[in-house]
Amino acid sequence: MVVKHAIATGLVLTLCVVFFLESLDLPATAARLPQILIIIIAILGILMFVEALKKSKDTGSTEGEERPEKINVKRVVIFVALIALYIFLMDIIGYFILTPLFTFAALVYFKATKVVVAIILSIAFTAFIYGLFSIFLNVPVPRGIFF
Hints:
mainly alpha, 0% strand, globular
């Protein structure tokens, strides 16, 4: 399993270097967000490898021991349909109404957290994206028919 994580980490870091070098051609203001995201992705890739290394040492596992979980195809299809509906309705309803609804629906559908926490996360995520794009980067988001 560690070998697979090492390959994935190497691929992620290679892509991060390529994209970071490409971002150097952008104006300084436009390059800021992609460079921050690239650095975050690189750090997360390294952390993923370190965690896999620790797990293999703790459990003493070998390559063939871990079995993948079965994929619930019905849940995947429903979620993909939810994403497609989100994209289709974005220009009609608008980002600020649709995104908290979508985030809440996804969190509840996957039973990722309690309903109250899902509501808080949905609102906080939307507010964060609003601050990042509308205020910090001055990038417009779809307003929809209500704004």
